[in-house]
Write a structure and sequence with these properties.
The strands form 3 sheets. Strands 1, 2, 3, 4, 5, 6 and 7 form a 7-stranded mixed sheet that branches. The protein folds into 3 domains: 175 residues, 3-Layer(aba) Sandwich (Rossmann fold); 180 residues, 3-Layer(aba) Sandwich (Rossmann fold); 80 residues, GMP Synthetase, Chain A, domain 3 (2-Layer Sandwich). α3 runs parallel beside α4. The chain is an alpha/beta fold and 461 residues long. The chain has 14 helices and 17 strands. The chain is 32% helix and 22% strand. Bound molecules: guanosine-5'-diphosphate. The site of guanosine-5'-diphosphate has 17 residues, from α7.
C-alpha cells in the first residue's frame, strides 16, 4: 500500500472564491473539496474548516478559501462588504474565482464587484457561471450582460450536480501553473507504479523479452494485482541504485499467458494494443530487426501518434544480425525513423529476447523516461529560456503578413509535458519554429523518450 503522502503544505497557492450569497459559492466550495475528500482527510496536517481546505487535483495541491458572500442586506453597507471581500481576496489569493448565477443572471451589485476585480488587474480572475445544470442553460450565458462584465466568457459549471466541475479544475490548474506560487506536487506520486506496455506484431519476440526482463535478479515479480484498474498487468519491483521502483507491465495480447503456455497463436491484437497504449505511460514498441518493416508494424506505430506516451523502440532479434557494427545500427535507425517519422523522439535499442543481449538496458531507460515525464520547469527558467531562444532565432511567420511575437511560454502540465506558447494576437507562427522551440527544450531539459506538446494561444495586448 502507498504510504501517507509527505508533502510540504506550507506556501501552497491560494484560490479565493468570491461572489454574492446564493450563487452557490459554498456548494462549489464543498464540491471542490468533496471531490477529493477521501484524499484530503488522509493528508497529515490538512485542515478543513468552513472556509478553507486543500484540494488535490492530478497529483498537485492547492488551497481553497471562501471569502464569505456578499449579503446584500441593509445591515451592512454594501460598499463596505464589497471592499472587505475584494481586499481579502486580493491579499491572499493567487487566483480569484468570481462566481455568478446562470439562472438569475447578473445583478447590479455584481457589476460593481466585477468592476473592482477588473481594476485590480494583477491577479488572474476566473469567471464562473454556476447552476448550469444542463446544456440548455448554457444559452443564458449568451445574454450580453455576461460579456459586459469585461471578464471574458464565463466557464460554466453546476456545483450541485458536479457537471463540468472537472473541466473547471483543469482550467484552474492551468491558470495556477502560470502564477508565481505554483501548485505543489504530491511527492508520493513517485512511488506509484509506472505503467508500461510492450506492443509489436506477433512473433517479434515480445513474450521472450518480457520473460528476460522479469527474469533478472534485480526484479521481484509480485503476484497480487496492485490495482483494480483494467487491464491487469504484472507488477514488478526493480532495484536500481539502492532504490525500489515499481513497474506495472500491462498485459498486451496475453504476453504472460502466452509465455506460460508457449503458444504462438496470438492474433494481431490491435484492439488489445490500443487499450494497453491508452493505459500506459511508457510503451516498448518492438520490431524484428531481421525483417523489413511491414504494414502491420506501421499500423501499430500509428497507434502511438498524438497520444503523449513515452516510447522506446526495441529492435529485437539482433543476435541474428549479420553486421553488428555502429554503421549497421545507424543504417537501421535511419530506416526505422523513416518509417515512423512521428516517433523521432524515441530512443532505439538493439536487443535479443533469445540470448538476453542488452535486455538489461531496458529498465534504466524506463526509469529515465519516467523521470522525463515528471520534468517541471520553473516559470522563471522558462522565461529566460524563451528569451534566449527567440534572440538567437527570430520567430518565423506562418500565414499572414504580421511579424509574430512570442509573449510567453508556460508549462501547463507534466506527465505528459504540455506547454503553452503565447503569441501576439492576429499573427501566426510557422510550424518549423515550434519544432525549433521543441528541440531547444529537448537540448536544455530532460524530455528523454517523451513527446512534448506545445499549444499556441493568441493574446491581445
Ligand atoms: P511475440 O509473439 O512477439 O510474443 O514473440 P515470441 O516471444 O513468442 O517469439 C517468437 C519467436 O521468436 C520464438 O520462436 C522466439 O524464440 C523467437 N525469438 C524471440 N526473440 C528472439 C531474438 O531476440 N532472437 C531470435 N533469434 N529469436 C527470438
Amino acid at each position: 500500500m502507498a504510504t501517507p503522502a509527505k508533502i510540504e503544505l506550507e506556501n501552497l497557492p491560494i484560490i479565493a472564491l468570491v461572489g454574492r450569497v446564493n450563487v452557490g459559492k459554498s456548494t462549489l466550495f464543498n464540491r471542490l473539496l468533496e471531490k477529493n475528500q477521501a484524499i484530503v482527510s488522509k493528508i497529515p496536517g490538512t485542515t478543513r474548516t468552513n472556509n478553507e481546505g486543500t484540494i488535490l487535483w492530478q497529483g498537485k495541491y492547492v488551497k481553497l478559501i471562501d471569502t464569505g458572500g456578499l449579503t446584500f442586506t441593509d445591515d451592512v453597507p454594501l460598499e463596505k462588504d464589497i471592499l472587505k471581500q475584494t481586499e481579502k481576496a486580493m491579499k491572499e489569493a493567487d487566483v480569484i474565482v468570481f462566481i455568478a448565477d446562470a439562472k438569475e443572471g447578473i445583478l447590479p451589485q455584481e457589476r460593481e464587484l466585477a468592476k473592482r476585480l477588473r481594476q485590480m488587474k494583477i491577479k488572474p480572475i476566473l469567471f464562473v457561471a454556476n447552476k448550469v445544470d444542463s446544456a440548455k442553460l448554457e444559452y443564458n450565458l449568451n445574454e450580453p450582460e455576461w460579456s459586459r462584465l469585461g471578464l471574458g466568457e464565463p466557464i460554466s459549471v453546476s456545483a450541485a450536480s458536479g457537471r463540468k466541475v472537472g473541466d473547471f479544475l483543469d482550467i484552474l490548474f492551468q491558470t495556477l501553473n502560470k502564477t508565481k506560487r505554483r501548485p505543489k506536487k504530491n511527492s508520493n506520486e513517485y512511488d506509484e507504479a509506472i505503467e508500461v506496455s510492450i506492443i509489436g506484431k506477433p512473433n517479434v519476440g515480445k513474450s521472450s523479452l518480457f520473460n528476460k526482463l522479469i527474469g533478472q535478479d534485480k526484479v521481484i515479480v509480485s503476484d497480487l494485482p496492485h490495482t483494480t484498474r483494467e487491464p491487469h498487468g504484472t507488477l514488478i519491483t526493480y532495484l536500481h541504485n539502492h532504490k525500489k521502483h515499481k513497474v506495472n507491465f500491462i498485459d498486451t495480447a496475453g504476453i504472460r499467458r502466452k509465455a506460460n503456455v508457449a503458444s504462438h497463436l496470438e492474433k494481431a491484437g490491435i484492439h488489445k494494443s490500443i487499450e494497453a497504449v491508452e493505459n500506459s505511460d511508457i510503451i516498448l514498441f518492438v520490431i524484428d530487426g531481421n525483417e523489413m518493416i511491414s504494414s502491420q508494424d506501421r499500423q501499430l506505430g500509428g497507434l502511438l501518434e498524438k497520444r503523449s506516451k513515452s516510447i522506446i523502440i526495441i529492435v529485437n532479434k539482433w543476435d541474428l544480425a549479420e553486421d553488428n557494427s555502429d554503421k549497421a545500427r545507424n543504417e537501421t535507425k535511419k530506416m526505422v525513423y523513416a518509417n515512423f517519422p512521428h516517433l523521432d523522439f524515441a530512443p532505439i535499442v538493439f536487443t535479443s529476447g533469445l540470448t538476453g543481449y542488452k535486455v538489461h538496458d531496458i529498465f534504466p531507460l524506463i526509469l529515465q523516461a519516467r523521470e522525463a515525464r515528471q520534468t517541471e520547469i520553473p516559470n522563471s527558467t522558462l522565461d529566460h529560456f524563451i528569451k534566449q531562444a527567440t534572440r538567437g532565432h527570430k520567430p518565423a511567420r506562418g500565414k499572414g503578413i504580421r511579424q509574430p511575437k512570442i509573449l510567453g511560454l508556460y508549462q501547463l502540465n507534466t506527465n505528459p509535458p504540455i506547454f503553452e506558447m503565447i503569441i501576439k494576437y492576429r499573427t501566426s507562427l510557422h510550424r518549423s519554429y515550434i519544432n525549433y522551440i521543441e528541440n531547444r527544450l529537448r537540448e536544455q531539459f530532460n524530455f528523454f523518450a517523451t513527446p512534448i506538446v506545445i499549444k499556441l494561444s493568441k493574446l491581445k495586448r
